[in-house]
Design brief:
Elements lengths: L3 E6 L2 H8 L14 E6 L4 E3 L15 E6 L13 E6 L3 E5 L2 E3 L10 E5 L11 E5 L8 E6 L3 E4 L3 E3 L12 E4 L4 E3 L4 E4 L6 E4 L5 E3 L8 E5 L5 E4 L1 E10 L5 E11 L12 E5 L9 E6 L3 E4 L3 E3 L12 E4 L9 H6 L6 E7 L5 H12 L1 H6 L2 E7 L6 E4 L2 E3 L1 H10 L8 E5 L5 E5 L5 H12 L2 H9 L6
Parallel strand pairs: 15-21, 27-28
Antiparallel strand pairs: 1-2, 2-3, 4-5, 5-7, 6-8, 9-10, 10-12, 11-13, 14-17, 16-19, 18-20, 20-21, 22-23, 23-25, 24-26, 27-31, 28-29, 29-30, 31-32
The chain binds 2-acetamido-2-deoxy-beta-D-glucopyranose.
């Protein structure tokens, strides 16, 4: 029998260090060993007594369970079979079992890799804190921002399989917004009106959760509206994103201050602006034709609910015809009466008679238009002049004709306004259907027009 003997010397340290760097193996100590293999012809005879045939197996973050044919103290002898176990939180990469082979290397490579869960996504309206980051057994606790409530799993744990337990919770805004309305207010209607404009600031909103997405709905008229007498309720409703609702209200009360209702004077009447007796209303006193006002013409309803001034009265117009000059006569009509001065050559003049007939029928309309008729008839020395029943002296008759350019030779007439200016002339009798519209359009003051409209049927 031929026997072959080999004698090999290996420096295992360098080879192992290179080959397995970073692989998870680490050898504990260097071991330069000499060993012998005898080739028997059909197989190698290996000396199992060598305790460190392979380098000692050491697993980072794991452990090994080895069984050697030589017993527990020969953990890296040839034929030793090891099961590799990873620590909790680590997962095996490579073979579960390795064996120390005749080549003095373990039969495979394995390592334990740390298991990590994925990073949890950012959490809307809240945050989370994890005990060990994304490592196994890390517990993450979720909390919601103020004003939100957590719904779902409060904690999630990174499991051994690299998955988080449970599912992501959500933060729900349960809290309704807080809304504060402006204060209730009372206002007095503006002067001469029965309404007033009321302004206010928008309500103040506080929603802890939704700072910007709160919607406000107004129930009622907006700020700056005109408000009439009485109490008005303004309501605001606020909704947050989750449709949580809150509302508030306030009132706007408008008072219309009123003066006592004015009574018209005897032989006169009053016309008032706006509602007649509300704060700021103005009432104008007018006397019927043939009467003149004694006292102020207008009274205003004051804020303290009383009328300004004292009530005037209407007294019969008394014209003093015993005056020296036409100026003194006309002064008595100044600002009070219009004049229709009719001049005729004789009492039997056809035009004159026609005119007087027409004016008699229109007497009421003339009074309404505050127009006094003066007749000048005939020539001196038999001239006759009169204002109603009062006779004028021949000097006044003469002067009137001169002042107003009235001819004594034929029928003619002149219309004089309240300020003594002649406004229209007639050389033929003038009918009320012509005279009245002229006065109404050109001579009446604004208030007189109003009064006339109100009392148009007065003469019928
Ligand atoms: C109302 O006010 C006016 C002027 O402001 C005053 O003259 C009058 O006496 C007051 N009337 C009352 C009832 O207070």
């Amino acid at each position: 029998m031929r026997r072959l003997f080999f004698l090999l010397t290996l420096s295992v340290r360098a080879a192992v260090a290179y080959r397995y760097e970073g692989s998870g193996y680490s050898y504990v100590e260097s071991h330069d060993v000499d060993y012998s293999v005898q080739y028997t012809g059909s197989s190698y005879y290996v000396d199992y007594k060598e305790p460190r045939w392979c380098y000692p197996l050491s697993i980072e973050n794991g452990d090994t369970e080895c069984h050697s044919p030589r017993g527990a103290n020969y953990r890296s002898t040839l034929g030793t079979r090891c099961r590799i176990l990873c620590d909790r939180g680590y997962r095996l990469l490579g073979r579960r079992h390795v064996e120390c082979t005749v080549t003095r290397y373990w039969s495979g490579m394995s390592r334990c890799k740390e298991v990590r869960c994925h990073s949890l996504p950012a959490f809307p309206y809240g945050s989370f804190v994890c005990s060990k980051g994304t490592r196994v057994d890390s517990e993450c606790e979720y909390i919601c921002e103020q004003g939100y409530q957590l719904e779902g799993d409060r904690t999630r744990v990174c499991q051994e399989n690299g998955q988080w337990s449970g599912s992501e919770p959500i933060c729900v805004d349960y809290e309704p917004p807080r809304i504060k309305c402006p204060g209730s207010r009372e206002k007095v209607a503006e002067p001469g009106q029965q309404t007033t404009r009321v302004y206010w600031d928008s309500p103040r909103i506080k929603d802890v959760a939704d700072k910007h997405s709160t919607k406000i709905v107004l129930r009622g008229p907006p700020s700056g509206s005109e408000f009439g007498k009485g109490e008005h309720i303004i309501r605001y409703v606020a909704y947050d994103r989750e449709r949580n609702k809150a509302s508030c209200k306030f009132t706007v009360t408008v008072h219309v201050r009123r003066c006592p209702v004015l009574k018209p004077p005897v032989h006169g009447y009053i016309t008032c602006t706006s509602a007649g007796n509300n704060y700021g209303a103005t009432c104008t006193y007018t006397c019927e034709g043939g009467y003149e006002r004694q006292g102020i013409s207008k009274r205003v309803c004051l804020f303290n609910r009383s009328w300004s001034g004292l009530a005037p009265s209407c007294v019969p117009i008394e014209i003093n015809v015993d005056v020296n000059s036409v100026a003194a006569l006309l002064d008595q009509f100044y600002e009070m009466q219009r004049l229709l001065i009719i001049s005729s050559p004789s009492a039997s003049d056809m035009y004159y008679n026609l005119q007087m007939n027409m004016l008699q029928e229109a007497a009421c309309g003339l009074e309404l238009r505050q127009t006094t008729v003066i007749e000048l008839v005939g020539n001196p020395p038999r001239a006759v002049g009169r204002i109603k029943e009062q006779q004028l002296s021949s000097e006044i008759i003469e002067q009137l004709r001169q002042v107003f350019y009235l001819s004594s030779m034929q029928f003619n007439a002149v219309l004089v306004d309240k300020y003594g200016a002649d406004r229209e002339r007639y050389i033929q009798p003038v009918a009320s259907s012509e005279l009245f519209p002229f006065i109404d359009i050109y001579l009446l003051q604004k208030e007189e027009k109003t009064i006339l409209q109100e009392r148009e049927n007065f003469c019928n």
